[in-house]
Amino acid sequence: MSFKKNILCIGAGYVGGPTMAVIAKKCPDCRIVVVDISAERISQWNSDNIPIFEPGLDKIIKETRGGNLFFSTEIEKGIKEADIIFVSVNTPTKTFGEGAGMASDLQYWEKTAHTIVENAESDKIIVEKSTLPVRTAEAMERILKASNRNIKFEVLSNPEFLAEGTAIKDLLEPDRVLIGSHKTEEGLKAAATLVDIYAHWVPKEKIITANLWSAELSKLVANAFLAQRISSINSISALCEKTDADISEISYAVGSDSRIGSKFLKTSVGFGGSCFSKDILNLVYIAQSYNLKEVADYWEMVVKMNDYQKRRFVQKIIKEMFNTVANKKIALFGFAFKADTGDTRDSPAIYITKKLVEERAFVSITDPKALDNARKDLEGIERLAAENGEGSGNSGIADGHGGERVKLVPDPYEAARDAHAIALLTEWVEYKDLDFEKLYRSMKKPAFIFDGRNILDHKKLYEIGFNVYPIGMSHFTHFE
Ligand SMILES: NC(=O)c1ccc[n+]([C@@H]2O[C@H](COP(=O)([O-])OP(=O)(O)OC[C@H]3O[C@@H](n4cnc5c(N)ncnc54)[C@H](O)[C@@H]3O)[C@@H](O)[C@H]2O)c1
């Protein structure tokens, strides 16, 4: 069968995999190859056990893989054959040198640009899918043009707005698709080619075209605005706990204003995920580099407020449990940064686990999808416990039932057995329906529940016998 377009996607991660699966489903006239430097990731995509959990993704992969969707490690071959190349590699926060802790680490992205230029034999449209600092396309163009090989590259910015956990729905029914291009004849022609692909399933009025720099900056701004709403409501949750106001009533009252809207006004233990902190800090760094100190300070506060919320949660656990959690068992319900994903990047649970271990608690972690990632995130916790004066014999991560500091336990009832407290960190819907009487019976008394997502029935838990601590509203305790 001959295809109208050959599409390549470099980077088979949380964005590249689902995005290309949906394009493959909706554009049977396109042949799509997704490549990655990680042979392990590619072989997972080609197996029955795909590397990421995303509702609905499995089904689309089964429908399209081997038909017009292929996963491969042959990056050079893919570049040679492609008309359009999506670049969807990771752009984490830099951990070294100038801008460490704030700027984007562009090494993966730059390597990709060099690989493209070295292997291309015909004109290409390059689509930035990764989230990048504003004006990155300019650097991409410089690298691509430096080859002097008479090949034309047109760079477009097409930032991805999907959210993990709802990625397939977001891709199938996006609020909008944003395509940035140069306003030259070639730029507009390349943008029109990409518009045609999305127009296979996205209504034309939802496909927004813009200049390259607006498209790049819009993605950082969208994430900054979303995170800002969470930090704003979380800041008020602290005030509620001092004043007997109730954060859920405030969210409802404030969110009912149509100018404000109700989404992203739910208080929590803090936001996580691979993008929010990274993208805001990147925005802060860009503002600083243009000497816009007030702009930088304004946005940095969103991240600081999030750090405060995580810290406050742990401090509350310690304070309410009679100022010590040493040698007490705390069961963490949920490790993913939110429900419906196994992703734990930047999850508040990582910080909370480490702090509890520093306080010498025993931590047992349960999560329906994220325990494999939790194991990787907590590597080195053995050292943390040892530095904290523990013998190495009873520290570290374990899946069994030894005396280890941190245990990963798939069954929540097992995780909570003999625990002094449950701290609910991820809003998995199945946690609402647990048998809390059974949990209560198996725990040490007095039994505590810290609901970091305010999803549980607090009154009912109190009646069972728990001491209950939600966020931003009154707690229910059996103490005098
Ligand atoms: N995860 C999200 O929810 C989300 C949403 C919107 C945008 N984004 C942005 O999309 C980009 C990708 O994010 P992700 O979550 O998919 O990251 P990821 O880490 O899951 O995937 C990136 C993949 O790129 C591969 N890679 C790195 N360098 C490569 C190279 N030179 N050649 C081939 N493959 C290479 C890595 O091996 C990895 O598999 C980031 O810029 C991110 O900010 C992410």
Written description of the protein model:
With 480 residues, this protein is an alpha/beta fold. The chain has 2 domains: 198 residues, 3-Layer(aba) Sandwich (Rossmann fold); 165 residues, Rossmann fold. It has 18 helices and 15 strands. The chain has a 7-stranded parallel sheet with strand order 11-12-10-9-13-14-15, with helices on both faces. The chain has a 6-stranded parallel sheet with strand order 3-2-1-4-5-6, with helices on both faces. The N and C termini lie far apart (76 Å). Bound molecules: nicotinamide-adenine-dinucleotide (NAD). Nicotinamide-adenine-dinucleotide (NAD) binds next to helix 5.
Architecture blueprint of SSEs:
Elements: E1 5-10, H1 16-26, E2 30-35, H2 39-45, H3 57-64, E3 69-72, H4 75-81, E4 84-87, H5 107-119, E5 124-128, H6 136-145, E6 153-157, H7 167-172, E7 177-181, H8 185-198, E8 207-211, H9 212-243, H10 247-255, H11 276-289, H12 293-320, E9 329-333, H13 348-358, E10 362-366, H14 371-377, H15 381-387, E11 397-398, E12 406-408, H16 412-416, E13 421-424, H17 436-442, E14 448-451, H18 458-464, E15 467-469
Parallel strand pairs: 1-2, 1-4, 2-3, 4-5, 5-6, 7-8, 9-10, 9-13, 10-12, 11-12, 13-14, 14-15
Helix pairs in contact: 1-3, 5-6, 9-11, 9-12, 11-12, 12-13
The structure holds nicotinamide-adenine-dinucleotide.
The site of nicotinamide-adenine-dinucleotide (NAD) has 27 residues, from helix 5.
**Terminal residue distance:** 76 Å
> Largest sheet, if any?
7 strands, parallel
Beta strands, count: 15
Calculate the mean pLDDT score and round it: 95
> If classified by CATH, what would the architecture of the largest domain be?
3-Layer(aba) Sandwich
Q: What structural category do the secondary elements indicate?
A: alpha/beta
